[in-house]
Structures are given as C-alpha cells and as structure tokens.
Amino acid sequence: MTSAGALKARVVEVVRETAEAHSLVLEPAEGDRDRFSYRPGQFLTVRVPAEDGWVARCYSLCSSPVSDDRLKVTVKRVAGGLGSNWICDNVTEGDVLEVLRPAGTFTPASLDEDLLLIAAGSGITPVMSILKSCLAAGAGNVVLLYANRDERSVIFADELRDLAAEHGDRLTVVHWLESVQGLPTAAALRSLARPYAGRETFVCGPEVFMDMAGSALTGLGVPAGRVHIERFFSLAGDPFDPAVPEEGEDADGADGADGSAEGAAEVEVEIDGETRTVPWPRSQRLLDVLLRAGVDAPFSCREGSCAACACVVVEGEAAMDANTVLDAQDLADGLLLACQARPVSDRLKVSYDG
C-alpha cells in the first residue's frame, strides 16, 4: 500500500475577506516546504472531516508564488457545503491541515502576455494569483472583469484598489454589481470583453457564469485554445487514502497473472527537474506506479475529473480509463491524466515540467 503523499500546513492567520469568505494563510511543515512550490492559478486539496470518515475539497491559491512569502487559500461559504462550512466555522490560527501538493492547469504559460481575466464571486481566487504574478514578474497588461452580488461581496476589494492605483498603466479592473446593473448577461459580457478578445483569457466563477462567459467569448470568435475555464467537482472518494490494489494486482504492485517482469512497459518521468525510469505494469495506472516508486507526482481527485495529475506524453502511447476534463486540444497537445492512464506502447516518456 502506498502513502498518498499528504503534506502538513499550519494556519498562521485567518483573514475575514467578506461576511462569507475567509482566507487561510498557511505555513508548510518544515520537512514539507520544498513540496509546496506552485504556479499562479493552482489549487490545494484539503482533507476535511465528514460524518463517516474524511472527504477532500479543492481550494484555489490566491497568493502569488513570485510576490507572496506565504501561501493563502480563500474559501467562500456555500449553503450546505461540507468543506466550506467546516473551514469557515472551525479552522482557526494554529490549526494544522492535511493537504496535497499544489496542482492544476489553470495557469498562464507566460507572465509577459496581455491577459483578460473574468471572474465572479469566489472565482476571483485563482484569478488573483495570476493577476498579482503578472504584475510582479511579467510585462503584460491585465484586464479584470469581476462580477459580484453587491459591493460588500467583493473579495479582495481593498487589495484590488491598491493594485490598480500602483499599476494603473498595466491593470484595468471593471466591476459588475448585480445590485446596480442586474444579473450579467452574455451580451453584456461580450460587450465588455470585445476590446480584449485577442488576449489569453482565464474564467472562473459559478457554473452558469462560466458557461455564459464561454459563450460570449465564442461569439467574439476567440479560439477555444485561448480560453481557460476552471471547473471544480466535489470528490466522491478520499484521495488521501493509500492506493488500493486493483483486481489481479498484489499489494507490492506486481501485475499478478501478467507478472511485472514479463508484461511491464517502461516509463521515463521528468518531474521537478529530475528524471526517473520505472517499470509500468500494463494493468496499473501511471499515478499509482509513480507513487509506489517514490516519485512525488501531483494529484487531487484520482477520478479523472480535475487534471491535477496531468502530464505531457513526450514519447510513446497510453490510454485513459476515464476523462471528463481534458478537451480535444489538450489531447492533441499530448496531455494525459496519470490517475487514469495505462500503457499502450512498450516505452514511454512523460513530463510534468511544462
């Protein structure tokens, strides 16, 4: 059985952003510090207690890896939300959380490109990480379109005001308040986005809002590959649990009837600047193989729904058992969900390093 790679992070401050949203400022445990490196727009998976055990929930990092010393996630209370209500009601300074290493693909390839950021409500969280990183370490101009119910609901209102004052030549913030302008419409979003339609675009917010923004951008002729939409799903299982051997596979990872020596493929893995080559039994999924070999591969849902485990196939061929998150362009670019992948060719090379 393999440890699922849980890390420890101490809550050093709880910031009440609005009446419904709390930010947790986190300090990694000393031995885990190196495993908390992250890219703008990524998220943390947090272990949350439930009535019959544990569940996991994903929360985006609003901090910037280039301008902030500590990690920070922001959680907005959701009616009936198990994770958000537990965090907002119970987590205090000094508590220690179990988390997985930062992951996710909602991140710009370059901080120097002009960006259009579209957010609603707590969807500002990963967008804020991207925005601050671009202003601190990039050269591009940034436009943020941010929708909220009313002025009191605007998360990071003061910080956005300060950033706009400091970077007025590069940052434009456009607020949409339902209390003033009514609910946003696809036509309104299309009109606001039109002057910036050629830019790389990142969208995050409630499902209906993201669908509307996506439709507006399509109507402007923005290629699908230029639009990045962050979607989260409630995880059915607990990805912190050790991997359970599948049928026909023993606890040591052997392939059972096939035999690990006879039937295994071979995979060369590039991660964090290092390269490892490990056998990949054909009945096993890549993520489980890597974790058993001690490779610190990122993951979150283990269900094929979040892309936290995505890597790029450089050589060879693999097939996925399930995929609800990678689109046709992602697949054409060679992306692969390690938690769902089994080998097709005898030798493969994959990379997590971009």
UniProtKB/TrEMBL annotation:
It comes from the Bacteria. It holds the Pfam family Fer2. It comes from Thermomonospora echinospora. The lineage of its organism: Bacteria, Bacillati, Actinomycetota, Actinomycetes, Streptosporangiales. Residues 265-354 form the 2Fe-2S ferredoxin-type domain. Its cofactor is FAD. SUPFAM superfamilies: 2Fe-2S ferredoxin-like, Ferredoxin reductase-like, C-terminal NADP-linked domain, Riboflavin synthase domain-like. Residues 4-109 form the FAD-binding FR-type domain. Keywords: 2Fe-2S, FAD, Flavoprotein, Iron, Iron-sulfur, Metal-binding, Monooxygenase, Oxidoreductase. One of its GO terms (molecular function) is metal ion binding. This is 3-ketosteroid 9alpha-monooxygenase subunit B.
